[in-house]
C-alpha cells in the first residue's frame, strides 16, 4: 500500500494520517471543513491536493451517522480501490452502507479502540493507535484484498487487529466504552453545581474517573443513538448494583452491630468485584494485565522541565509505561507520576535523586 485518502481530518483521521506519513505513505486529506484539512496538512499529516487517480485505500473518518453517505460519495467519485471507516459503532453504518447501495465487496468496517476526550486535528497524535486493539468487521461480501489492505493499515499504525462481527462489536463496546462514557459524565455532572470548596479539593481519583466526561456531546449522541438499547441494558444492571450499594451504605449507618457488619460485607463485595474486573483489563499490546509501580517526581512549573525529566529517565534505560501529571493548586509545581516496571523503581529513585530531582514516595 502506497497511497491513502483520509476523508474527515478530525482527531482520528489526522492521527491515522500522521501515522501513515511517518511510515512513508502518501496521504491525501479531505474534509467538509477545509480548515480542518488544511490544519491537518500543516501538522505534517499529508497533502490537501487531490490524488491523480484512485488511491490504494480511502479511510472515511467522519461521525457514524455520516459514514454511509460519505462512503457512497467517495465510491461515486472513484476515490480509491478499497475503502474502510473508523466509526465507533459498526452495525448502524453497515446498514446505511447497504441501504445506499454502496459497493460492499471493496469496503470493510473498522474501529480503532483508541481515542481522546478531545476532537479536531489539533488533538491528533501519530502514536494514538500504538499497541491498541483495532476491530475489523468483514462480511461475506468483503474481498480478501480489502481485508488485507485494512490489516496493513492497522499494522502500519502499530495496532492489533481483531476481526469481529459488527453486532458482537457493538455489544462489546457498549460495556467497555459506551457505558463507561455515560458513567464518567454522570459522576462529573454531580460537580456541576457542587460547592466551590468541594471542587477545589479534586485530586487524582476524580480526575481519572472523569477524564472522558470532557468528550464531545454531539459525537457521543451520534454513537449512543446507534447503540442505545444495549447500553440501556448495561445501565439497568448498573442501577441494580447501585441500589444494592445504597442499601449496604444505609446498613453501615445502622445502630446495631449486625446491620453494620452486613453493610460492610456488601461494600467490601462491591470493591472486590471491582478489583477483579479491573485486573482483567489487558496491558499494552494485549499482554496480560501488568502491574506497574509509580515513581512520583515534583516538578517546577517551567518550560522544558518535563522534557528534561523524560530525557533523564530514557538515558537510564527505563521505559515509561504511563504518565499522569497532577498540578498543585497552591504552588507553581506539578507532581509527575511515572508508571514503570517494579524492577526499575529502586534504581530510578536513586538516580533521579542523585540528579537533583525531588522524588516522593507514593
Ligand atoms: N474520538 C474518539 O475517541 C474516537 C475513537 C475511535 C473512533 N472514533 C470515530 O472516528 C470518527 C471521527 O471521530 P473524531 O473523534 O475524529 O471526530 P472529529 O470531530 O475530530 O472529526 C470528524 C471530522 O469529520 C468531518 N466531516 C463531517 N462531515 C463530513 C463530510 N460529509 N465529509 C468530509 N468530512 C466530514 C468534520 O469536519 C471533522 O473534521 C467517528 O466516527 C468516531 O465515532 C472516534
Ligand atoms: O480514551 C478515550 O478518550 C476514549 O474515550 C477512547 C474510546 C474508548 O472508549 O476507549 C472512545 C470511543 C472510541 O470509539 C474508542 C475509544
Automatic annotation (TrEMBL):
Pfam family, one: PDH_C
InterPro entries associated with the record: 6-PGluconate_DH-like_C_sf (IPR008927), ACT-like_dom_sf (IPR045865), ACT_dom (IPR002912), NAD(P)-bd_dom_sf (IPR036291), PDH_C (IPR046825), PDH_N (IPR046826), Preph/Arog_dehydrog (IPR050812), Prephen_DH (IPR003099)
Ranges where the Prephenate/arogenate dehydrogenase domain occurs: 2-282
Keyword vocabulary terms for this entry: Amino-acid biosynthesis, Aromatic amino acid biosynthesis, NAD, Oxidoreductase, Tyrosine biosynthesis
Reactions catalysed according to its record: prephenate + NAD(+) = 3-(4-hydroxyphenyl)pyruvate + CO2 + NADH
NCBIfam families: PRK06545.2-1, PRK06545.2-3, PRK06545.2-4
Name of the featured protein: Prephenate dehydrogenase
Source organism (scientific name): Kitasatospora kazusensis
Native organism taxonomy: Bacteria, Bacillati, Actinomycetota, Actinomycetes, Kitasatosporales
Amino acid at each position: 500500500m502506497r497511497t491513502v485518502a483520509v476523508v474527515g481530518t478530525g482527531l482520528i483521521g489526522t492521527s491515522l494520517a500522521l501515522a501513515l506519513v511517518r511510515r512513508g505513505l502518501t496521504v491525501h486529506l479531505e474534509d467538509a471543513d477545509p480548515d480542518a484539512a488544511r490544519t491537518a496538512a500543516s501538522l505534517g499529516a499529508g497533502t490537501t491536493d487531490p490524488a491523480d487517480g484512485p488511491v490504494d485505500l480511502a479511510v472515511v473518518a467522519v461521525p457514524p451517522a455520516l459514514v454511509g453517505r460519505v462512503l457512497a460519495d467517495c465510491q461515486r467519485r472513484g476515490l480509491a480501490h478499497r475503502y474502510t471507516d473508523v466509526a465507533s459503532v459498526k452495525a448502524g453504518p453497515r446498514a446505511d452502507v447497504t441501504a445506499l447501495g454502496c459497493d460492499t465487496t471493496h469496503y470493510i468496517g473498522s474501529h480503532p479502540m483508541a481515542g481522546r476526550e478531545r476532537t479536531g486535528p489539533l488533538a491528533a497524535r501519530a502514536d494514538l493507535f500504538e499497541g491498541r486493539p483495532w476491530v475489523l468487521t468483514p462480511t461475506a461480501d468483503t474481498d480478501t484484498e480489502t481485508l488485507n489492505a485494512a490489516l496493513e493499515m492497522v499494522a502500519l499504525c502499530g495496532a492489533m487487529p481483531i476481526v469481529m462481527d459488527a453486532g458482537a462489536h457493538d455489544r462489546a463496546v457498549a460495556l467497555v466504552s459506551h457505558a463507561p462514557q455515560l458513567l464518567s459524565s454522570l459522576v462529573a455532572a454531580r460537580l456541576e453545581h457542587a460547592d466551590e470548596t468541594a471542587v477545589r479539593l479534586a485530586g487524582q481519583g476524580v480526575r481519572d474517573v472523569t477524564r472522558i466526561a470532557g468528550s464531545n456531546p454531539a459525537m457521543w449522541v451520534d454513537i449512543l443513538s446507534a447503540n442505545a438499547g444495549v447500553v440501556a441494558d448495561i445501565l439497568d444492571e448498573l442501577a441494580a448494583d447501585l441500589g444494592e450499594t445504597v442499601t449496604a451504605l444505609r446498613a453501615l449507618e445502622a445502630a446495631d452491630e449486625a446491620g453494620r457488619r452486613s453493610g460492610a460485607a456488601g461494600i467490601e463485595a462491591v470493591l472486590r468485584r471491582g478489583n477483579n474486573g479491573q485486573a482483567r483489563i489487558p496491558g499494552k499490546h494485549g499482554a496480560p494485565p501488568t502491574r506497574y509501580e509509580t515513581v512520583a517526581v515534583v516538578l517546577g512549573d517551567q518550560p522544558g522541565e518535563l522534557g528534561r525529566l523524560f530525557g533523564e529517565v530514557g538515558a537510564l534505560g527505563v521505559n515509561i509505561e504511563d504518565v499522569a501529571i497532577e498540578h498543585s493548586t497552591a504552588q507553581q509545581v506539578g507532581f509527575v507520576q511515572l508508571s514503570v516496571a517494579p524492577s526499575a523503581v529502586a534504581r530510578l529513585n536513586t538516580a533521579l535523586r542523585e540528579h537533583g530531582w525531588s522524588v516522593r514516595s507514593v
